[in-house]
Fold these 2 entries.
Entry 1:
Amino acid sequence: MARKKISVIGAGNVGATAALFIAQKQLGDVVMVDIIDGVPQGKSLDMAQASPVELFDAGITGSLDYEATAGSDVVIITSGSPRKPGMTREDLLQTNASIVGSVTENVVKYSPDCVIVMLTNPLDIMTYHAWKVSGFASNRVVGQAGVLDSARFRYFIALELGVSVEDISALVMGGHGDTMVPLPRYTTVGGIPIPQLISEERIEEMAQRTRDGGAEVVNLLKTSGYYAAGASLALMAEAILRDKKRLIPCSAHLTGQYGIDDLYIGVPIKLGANGVEQIIEVELTDDELQSLQKSAQTYREGIALLGY
Ligand code: APR
């Protein structure tokens, strides 16, 4: 059987980390594309030279040319610009929309049958934009946010209880940002919902630390984190390429679920070879539903700025 092909657009911190995790999982051959000459080529050569040490068989190459991505099964888009001093969120939105737009056109030209996994921020808005530009059915465009956000929540719970991260399953819905909605009732340790194990007050502290998870890393590192985001992208690539049908939170296109229509937002989905194979509607309290819809309102304003 021929190897699968995964392209990663943007060979920066997150893109390169995702590429390495994907190669180590031997999900297929990896191609990195960037606009800075030498970066995708140099990083991929360096990673390929780690393969005899770490013992993984995966082609890893880098290019400035989208032709190298032709026929990809999965394309991960991480290309974007960080927020620079003096730049408003709106400026960043326009800058990254223009990058994501041109990248998506090139991706679609060379890999018309791929599943696109979006990472560039503002995530839920960029995923919507890529979907529109791609002309793909919405199941084939999905955003990474909930896997990372719930990983952070899981990690904090494991620390709190002194138990293995393996036994913790968490659900964090909503947007990737201040409006995310961690759901303790749907978060379990060895099958036991956490409200039975941890006080309400401590749970809320951990939920807040999860909401601020990105900022906590930025404050320390002076740039966005990338290990956990890279790992989360690799998990999504694996779910698609191995048709694992993982039930995980991702940014998906809603068409009325949770009272939200024609927006991308973080919800539990089934992720497999066809991308978003199902959107799961869980029962929410009025407060939870309100938080989700508040999240949605922000994104509706965001896509309106892009003319949608
Ligand atoms: N085509 C391809 N690559 C591009 C383009 C483009 N049009 N524009 C920028 N890039 C590349 C940059 O050259 C850089 O290597 O995207 C990469 C982004 O990498 P980093 O700056 O290291 O950012 P990273 O931490 O990886 O985060 C990626 O995620 O958090 C979001 O929106 C944020 O843009 C950021 C993205």
Entry 2:
Amino acid sequence: MRLGVLGSGKGSNFVAIADGIVAGRVPAEVVLVASDVPDAGILAHARERGIPAVYLPPGKFRTKLDEEAEVALIAALETARVDLVVLAGYMRILKGELLRRFEGRVVNIHPSLLPSFPGLAAWKQALDYGVKITGCTVHLVDQGIDTGPIIAQRAVPVLDGDTPATLHERVQSAERELYPAVVAAWARGEIRVRGRATVGFAG
Ligand code: GRF
């Protein structure tokens, strides 16, 4: 299975997936890493591993791609013959044409137990709200923000004395276990999606 990974940040989830591939735990190949941020860590990590890594300028908007940028991203993914688009800290909202072309083949990881705390800095939202358990969620991407069918979740305790930074690190450490495991299950053809119901992830 050919993965196209999109990210805007440091790329720890990408690294976890790439390491899982090298270790033989994830039967897939990352054929492209693309970012909307020219100096994103994810691009450097990809280049260190000899994986094609491209900066694609996002265009004139702040939170989404403009039409030209979306066309360029679709072209890059299609040229690389990507089977599954893996969002790993990609800070642009994807809508429209890209989701149509890759319908049911775009996944994301979100740092909370959805549907609680969609949107930005979800670990901080959880801490501010006062929940005792939060976590992370791998889900399919649909037209909404963090609303697509849930594939897998992992719970993370909120501890007395947690700060946003300590909780974020604990959630991210859960992400680095969960995301490669889900991608591996997807690559093995174990995950089935029927409407909002997804089955097949045992981990
Ligand atoms: C992750 O925490 C993920 O939940 C969110 O963006 C963050 C990306 O981190 N969608 P990294 O770039 O993979 O380290």
